[in-house]
Amino acid sequence: xxxxxxxxxxxxxxxxxxxxxxxxxxxxxxxxxxxxxxxxxxxxxxxxxxxxxxxxxxxxxxxxxxxxxxxxxxxxxxxxxxxxxxxxxxxxxxxxxxxxxxxxxxxxxxxxxxxxxxxxxxxxxxxxxxxxxxxxxxxxxxxxxxxxxxxxxxxxxxxxxxxxxxxxxxxxxxxxxxxxxxxxxxxxxxxxxxxxxxxxxxxxxxxxxxxxxxxxxxxxxxxxxxxxxxxxxxxxxxxxxxxxxxxxxxxxxxxxxxxxxxxxxxxxxxxxxxxxxxxxxxxxxxxxxxxxxxxxxxxxxxxxxxxxxxxxxxxxxxxxxxxxxxxxxxxxxxxxxxxxxxxxxxxxxxxxxxxxxxxxxxxxxxxxxxxxxxxxxxxxxxxxxxxxxxxxxxxxxxxxxxxxxxxxxxxxxxxxxxxxxxxxxxxxxxxxxxxxxxxxxxxxxxxxxxxxxxxxxxxxxxxxxx
Length: 466
What we know:
This protein is α+β, with helices and mostly antiparallel strands and about 475 residues long.
């Protein structure tokens, strides 16, 4: 019995010794992941490549712009003059922001009198009265004719009887009585007519000889005075009641007039002319942009796309909201200001086709094509081109099995992160070849182990391509 116990004890001890030896031996071959990584060393770096492209290369300048009318005009009026009443006050506002201004449209009413618009380039600088002469009278006559109020046989540039009748019809259409050129004109006209009748009777009653001759002279003078009275009598167009706009219809951009307020300063702002886009260039971009360059216009808000051309580039640095508003009766022109919010050199882009009216005052993206290659060329990323100490300009092409080949090239224009290249040896570089643009850190791409991966090239417009 004792012998069996001894044997069991010896067996257990022997087994323990064997297990201990096996465990110690296995530690020489089993390693943790960290130990394996530290002993393996860094993997081979991954080569970044990009394809050779065959296309037209363009260099673009991308900026923000604001859609504006060709010109913005501040409309103002001092109100009726020569009135023995309280200070002028706005009594009605007939238009709102975004409204269209048509010929003979009433804009506001000041102290019961209208302020209306007619088409004309010459600003109002005086009251237009019967008997007046000048280019402003000619402009009024033309505007009346276009609105359907003929001036009869009046000579162009002369405010005659036909023009007076046209003015009466204009005011009747507006719903107002015209202002008489002379408040006492009707009375003076009656007196002149009475004088003519008296002189006619005196001439008829005069006997032959000296008395009849003198009566005839007096009658002629009376008739001349009557003609003068008729010429200056009738309706006038006060400068405070009319504004000439160079183009109609126009668009109301802002209304500052308010009922009950004094009419001093700007009553409203209107825009005229075809819509354009104004942007601001930095000093660096200004050297790339020239008149006549093509532009792509894009509205992120509406999705509208359009094309246009650069029509002007300012020589002087400008800041937003530098336009001054007009004062006094009539209209004062002020440049439309691009809402870029920063100083810059103003660039104006004129669309090839009229832009929709709902884009007014909206921000858009302008992509100006500053330069372009003459036809399709071989194009590679700028990072693929290198210049060595041997004065060679080359690109490195990754061939089959990872073989690298340096190809001598002649660089051309560059733009948006790419450069045009021409191989010095025919056939040495073809579209679709992979050129080396850099080396990625080990394990940074999914293509590790393949020997190469596509490079993500950052374009000039901020959009990466792979």
